[in-house]
């Protein structure tokens, strides 16, 4: 891989890792608020305890995968899937599919409009796909040195 391509891959994967690391840390450090925000969404109440652990665990798995060369492609793929699912959810809310509009207080950028959440998550999906494609082009370790 040419050095500029390697640099692009490094920046993309680092940005994704930083995003998911922050999301993970925020959900753990501000756990009470995180659970309240989950409860204000359209999910059944019975799902909240599981989601409150599964989502942060997924964030952490993505961070760990992105940190090691052998996990970069799976990490970028999981990142793309999670961003895409979140974009789908934001799009459904923005389109008014749900009877009540859920609080837009969950996520990295609190109180971002639902159209803003949709754009942010679509951009994250695209960035993840770029990382997935570019990480597959080189054999050398990108983030792990």
TrEMBL record:
Give start and end of each Methylamine utilisation protein MauE domain: 7-133
Mention any one GO cellular component term assigned to this protein in its UniProt record.
Answer: membrane
Positions of transmembrane segments: 7-25, 45-68, 75-98, 118-136
Q: What is its main location?
A: membrane
Give the GO terms filed under biological process for this record. Answer: methylamine metabolic process
Its membrane topology: Multi-pass membrane protein
UniProt keyword terms in alphabetical order: Membrane, Transmembrane, Transmembrane helix
Q: Which Pfam families match?
A: MauE
Where is this protein localized, as stated in its record? Membrane
Q: What is this protein called?
A: Methylamine utilisation protein MauE domain-containing protein
* Source organism: Pedobacter yulinensis
């Amino acid at each position: 891989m040419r050095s500029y391509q390697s640099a692009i891959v490094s920046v993309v994967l680092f940005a994704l890792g930083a995003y998911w690391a922050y999301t993970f840390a925020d959900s753990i450090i501000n756990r009470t608020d995180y659970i309240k925000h989950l409860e204000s969404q359209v999910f059944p109440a019975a799902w909240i305890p599981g989601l409150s652990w599964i989502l942060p665990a997924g964030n952490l798995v993505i961070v760990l995968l992105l940190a090691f060369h052998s996990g970069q492609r799976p990490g970028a793929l999981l990142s793309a899937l999670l961003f895409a699912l979140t974009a789908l959810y934001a799009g459904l809310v923005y389109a008014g599919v749900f009877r009540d509009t859920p609080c837009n207080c969950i996520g990295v950028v609190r109180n971002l409009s639902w159209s803003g959440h949709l754009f942010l998550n679509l951009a994250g999906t695209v960035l993840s796909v770029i990382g997935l494609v570019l990480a597959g082009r080189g054999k050398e370790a990108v983030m792990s040195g």
